[in-house]
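Dear colleague,

Thank you for sharing your sequence with our group. We've completed the structure prediction you requested, and as agreed, I am returning the results in plain text so they can be pasted directly into your records. Please verify that the sequence below matches your submission; if there's any discrepancy, let me know and we will rerun it promptly.
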Amino acid sequence: MRVAIGQLLQEVNHFSPVPTTLANFQAFGIRYAQDLMSRFASVTELGGFMDALGPETGVELVPTLAAWAMPAGKLDRQTHQFLRNRLLDELRKAGPLDGILLSLHGAMSAEDEWDVEGSLLDAIRREWGARIPIVISLDHHANITKRIVESCDGLVGYRTEPHLDAYETGLRAGKIMLGVLRGENRPSTRWRKLPMIATGNLLAPEGPLGDFFAEVDHLERREEVLAVSIFPEFPYSDTPELGWTVVAVTDDEPDLAQDIADGLATKLWETREQFLPLERPSPAEAVAKALTTEGGPFVLGDFGDNTAGGATGDSTAVLQELLGKDLGGYAIVSVVDPEAVAACVEAGVGQSVTLELGGKIDRLHYEPVLVSGRVKTLSDGRYRAWGDLDVTMGRAAVLESGQIYVLLSELASPNVDPEIYRSVGLEPREAKLVLVKCAYNFTAYYGDFAKEMIVIDSPGVTGQDLRARADEFQAAPRPLFPLDDSVAFEL
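Please find the predicted structure tokens below.
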């Protein structure tokens, strides 16, 4: 038995001013064939696929393509067509297949296609036919569409926020595929869409979603239930099928799958107020608390400039609050600013410069800040994030300005764990204050040493108050909770 595996991941923020190009994928490496197998062995969803369908199962895995890019605006047409056609070509080159197993995000859009994953899966189904089982894994923030569900035999999604279970998700998808290949099950997939979005209390398992995932675990103990997934969607996707989704996959019991999806969807709707934005401090309030409290580090999560959600990374909101103050230690912040990096490179390490930082990409929410300092470090900007992902922030420079160290980079990158700062010689453990351009995921990486972690209500394209931005949604189905009043949900 031969199963093709592949991966295509990117989360598109429709409000980002930065389009996604092929260079964004190339920056993190597009891998093929055995390079894919060796790089992702036992990590990410691909590693889960490999371990679920190991040599002892009698399945031959055929690697195709693995491509990943930072969240940003919609893919341009050329990038979308290249990735789509290249994956299809790699599947064709794979020869006779008994199954197709893919790791997708679920929130990709392009200039020429709202639903990149659904369109891709539909094309695969049409070419390879109904006989070939297609199973996919998806991100927690996938926007489930009719084409996605109808074009695959089974799907599973992450269950953690921060996302720490990519490998386990791949393992579950791989086991469903193995059961199909062995004739042990016949997946029946059913779903229910909810007219709601949320940017609020979505942590899992600690937050209210944790109780729902505990129920999912209980449901999956039933032999006839293969997988149950809850997708809180990606709320910055202004697409025609936007909304939370529950998906259930059973062993040839479609009515049971629909009952499970409907039951969980109803409970989620009844508790929807739990998922509204929490009251969070402003940048000024968070900085004031850190500077008037003994010890550290205080780690501030920038909700509005969350690069892991497609924000630009060039916010100056926290930097402005730090300038001119006695910090009682040092602060580490980051700003995406290619022009400032180029100026630091031209000046050289040890040289003094005065630069306008930030506010050059997202001009709607941010403005440049004038900072004088010394170029402390220059770097190629490569580091490893999340423990297993090789990433780049482009060329990088550290500007030392009194008690403030500003990490300047050419590209937005996963500003989630301390390695981004350690890669340029800065140690967050020893700082008074650390800024991360992230809303949630950083808590998994700073929690063991942070004195306190504070998520701030900050401006940007990933800002949490979507109700105040309701007019920005042009394609999403309306009415939609919480953008509108009097939203109804009926089975």
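Summary note from our side: The chain has two domains: 2-275, 283-464.

Kind regards,
the structure core
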